[in-house]
Structures
1.
Amino acid sequence: MREKHLHVADEELLLQAGGETDPSSSAQVQAHLESCPQCCARLKELESALAEFSEAHRETWKAELSGAAGRRAQLKARLAELAVHEREQRWLRAAWVAVIERRQAAVFAGVGIAVFLLLAVLVHGPAERAQIMSASLEHWEEPNLRLTPGATVPVTEREVCGVAAKTVPVVPASLKRKVFEEYGVTPPEPDAYEVDYLITPELGGATDIRNLWPEPYQDTVWNAHVKDQLEDRLHRMVCRGDLDLATAQRDISTDWIAAYRKYFHADQPVSDGSSFNFSDRLLPVPKLFTNL
Amino acid sequence: MELFEELRERLLRYLLVLGLSVHDGEEIIQESFLLLFQHLERGKPRQNLRGWVFRVARNLALKHRAADRLRLRRVVEFDQTLPAQSVDRSPNPEEQLRRMQRQQRLLAVVHALPEQDQSCLCMRAEGLRYREIAAALGISLGSVAASLARSLARLGRADGG
């Protein structure tokens, strides 16, 4: 057994082996290693454990890694599509800037509107100000039913309650972009919205633009996490036979907030969904879109 | 595309450990690289892009996992897939069985680790440097090393037991 106070700690050994120790500590650790067979042996043990895990890890997933060429081609196609989209966005921005620069009257009009809004906020007080400030976000607590009426695939109760039906497929990036465009969320901020299914696939919802909308994650009371609670409850009720699938689909697609109130017997969310709120554990995705 | 070539398999293995299906893992990798494209197009920093891609992919994966609430599928499946993958590498059936049991023991330990420890270990096994892992997870170098030391000690105990 190594006497810890006389030897280098495991984490220091690992940092040294990885070349990440600062120069002064590195020299000390190196000097110790040259004179301490126990620490050398310990470092070998750690490296050997890592090498063994790495091999097992690669071996386990070897069969899953086929199709590289297809995925490369798919990414190339998506990148090309995105590049066109980015060019269009740049062109629109440039055109807008040009219009503003050439027409000073537009600037004055803009200033006038801003002054008007400020006065309106001051006159109407804090509550109305909050309402005005958050209007654009709260608008999508519920989808625009003209854009997102809901779409389903033909499934039975038995199928949606089977094991295979429990996977909610990832919405492809290209489809997400179309949803954001359709709702005028330009540019999308990855942490702010979930492109959510109006009728969840767990209830037979389709991966179709008519069934998707950009739902806020955190900034409203009726957010994506709360809707997840409703989806869970409806799925359980359908699978227990307490509710038929068609009613569940109709209620959640007509007005999911009303459906929540109906099935939870509550005017407000019973919790904010934090029981499975991974956002608390997430790091912020770097803000990619703030330049726009 | 070079970075995609370099990282696709590494990312996919990592996402599979986090519990995603191959299809969802591939979609998240594609989305991460589309975000990287936008990141670079807008003149954002180019340092530590490997850590950046792993960070974005992890965030997307955890969000998807939270939405999907299907955590255990891969854990169950790895037990079923491992024997088939190990068949042709071992010199004899006994050696093959011993090897397979050892791998399963190691992987079972990893699946029982907290998500951050799993991530540190998998990213290191995929060849990321400590500073890249630290950037991907938003923690210090010391925390990465401490997490790895903890996980490797557990693996060592499992291997000995």
2.
Amino acid sequence: MKIRIEANGHRFIIPLPIKVALNGVTIRIIASCSKKYSNVPLKEEYLKVLRKELINAKRSFRRLVLIDVSSSDGFKVKITL
Amino acid sequence: MANTLGSRIGEFRKKKGITQDQLAEYIGVSSQAVSKWENDLSCPDITLLPQLADYFNVTVDELLRGEKSQVVQVVSEGERKDFNKILLKVFVHSEQGDIVKVNLPLGLVKVALEIGMQLPQISCNDALKNIDLQAILQMAENGVIGKIVEVKSANGDNVEVVIE
């Protein structure tokens, strides 16, 4: 997965391998953080299913642009599978 | 989508998993003719286009223009794609010039819904908060494909939801 952010003439590309971003440790961290700070509590088991589904989706749709947001002020965010 | 008629024929043929010989045999031309079409050295006869379109399960318009048909249709159970290979596309163009495009595999949408996520949380856009994903999933499961929602508001916002 790749996250590309463009703002004020600057461009960042963050490569984010799914298996690295969502491993056993990070899943626990995300689950505990979402419980404390988010209004959507993400349970560990849900995140594991999400990781599995993301990997399956990557196999079926290689380099699919999941989200492409571009605002009128030039801010752009693109998430590619 | 490929740019020329020949490349589209080649693309549809490969998607169907057949050889040039098999396509030639079905259409009733030589395999050299199919090869010439795909390499843009010649074009299929106009009378063969409906036959080709039917064979690839697309419209003649889609074959010629390379644009997906946006007409809503219900696909019969035998011809339906695997649920995980269907895409949900949401396109929002706001009056201020903000553009949001969301392409989500339905398998992923299903899991996200089970978790309790909604589109505004994924796309950070409140224009999508009233989209009932559960109903869209149900429609997709029943074989509905095409542009299922198109809203143009008075202040110029445009929202489209397509199952592909």
